[in-house]
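FW: tagging you since you asked about this chain on Friday. Here's the raw sequence from the shared folder, copied in full. Didn't touch anything.
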Amino acid sequence: MLKCLFIGIHHLVLDEKNRLIFPAVFRKDNPPEVLDGKFIATPHESGYLIFRPEIVVEEYLALIQSRLADQPAKADQFKRHFYANSTTVQLDKLSRLCLPKWIREKLAFEESAERDKVILIGSGSFFELWPEELYLIEDQSLNWLSEMTDQLTGRPNRKPY
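HL: got it, structure written out here
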């Protein structure tokens, strides 16, 4: 099984042609089989996009299938919904991802937001593309995560600066 790794938070700009430059660390951390292939872009109901390398999509769908093994109709419904609402994108020769207009419109930009500011987040075997303002709200809601991490590692609770 081919491994891929997407880590880090990357502040980017979508240009006027809906393109964004793929982060250098993503290119460094992944083999050519991942980078030269297609990515499946799927909108999330919360207003961001999820990108999975095509070579790991079948593994992802097999996991869903196994979790819904006792409900084959739901598993089929999930797979149908996944493919019906996804599109393929590929890196161009300048290491840019170009988003089709209809998938870009799935990003939940605020009316007052600059529509071109986005954040690309590595999530292990896939990555997410968020409108900047939406991600900043999401990020602020994760204070509980730091507290949980502190408890697990035995660190005293941090105090805000």
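FW: The chain has a mean pLDDT of 87.
HL: agreed, and Strands lie at 9-13, 19-21, 38-43, 49-53, 87-90, 96-98, 117-122, 127-131.
FW: great, closing this out.
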